[in-house]
Amino acid sequence: MKSPMLVVLLAFVASTYAAALALQSPKFTVSSPNGDQIRSEPISLTKKSSPVRLGPQDVLRVTFQVTENDGGTGVQPHQAFLRFYDNISGEDGLQPVRVTSNGKARFELNMARPPSSFPPTSPDSVLKVSLIIGSFVHKPLAVDLFDLIVPASQPVASHPEEVYYHPQPVIEHTFRPEQKTPPAFISAVFSALVLAPWVVLVGLWSQLSPKVPNLFSLKIIPFTATLGAFELLLVWYWVDLRLGQVLLYGAGLGIVAVFTGKTALVQVGKLRKGSI
Known about the structure:
Structural class: alpha+beta
Radius of gyration: 50 Å
CATH topology of the largest domain: Immunoglobulin-like
CATH architecture of the largest domain: Sandwich
Largest sheet: 5 strands, mixed
């Protein structure tokens, strides 16, 4: 003995597959902008008719009714779309169709204002128009209606910033050649010029005889060491430091030089008084 639940389930499945959607009285009409009818024919679902041609201002109207089984009552599916497919470019567009509660539907395409979902076309394009209907309680329905020839679409106007999104030329960096070092003779000459003030300083010290030994006292050596630090700072700047670092370190050495120099001048003054 079969279970009552199983019987109900089998009956539901049988009724679902028994109720199929059908298309009744499909028809298309082409009219001019002033309303004159250019062509009006029923759509045959078994025999393909000649392509439908539209002008730049023509209007296409498609009407049909969705029924349950052939000759049954009209039903409203959950969704219905007209698909326009270009077999050459592969572009397609879906346009929803509103179906009333009794299954009747009407779609209108005005070539003067085509919908945004309409695919771009070329002079050789032939659009295949098909109807796709979906329902939760019926098998889906897909039928080919007719071929459609429309004027070629206008090229899309370029955006002012479109050029920024194109591939750009490859950026190539040109590096400067390595810096050339001056000849050894030139380096020696300028090194001698840098050291020349020290030669002059030692010569002046030698003229303070017999008080020369006192110049190396603890009150004068710090100032001399500060001058030597300035020389080392300039060499370091030439090798590695930046200008901001040199100014920072030089400011610190300058403060030290003020105090050590004042002490050294006082000590030299005492030496001069003692030598008179």
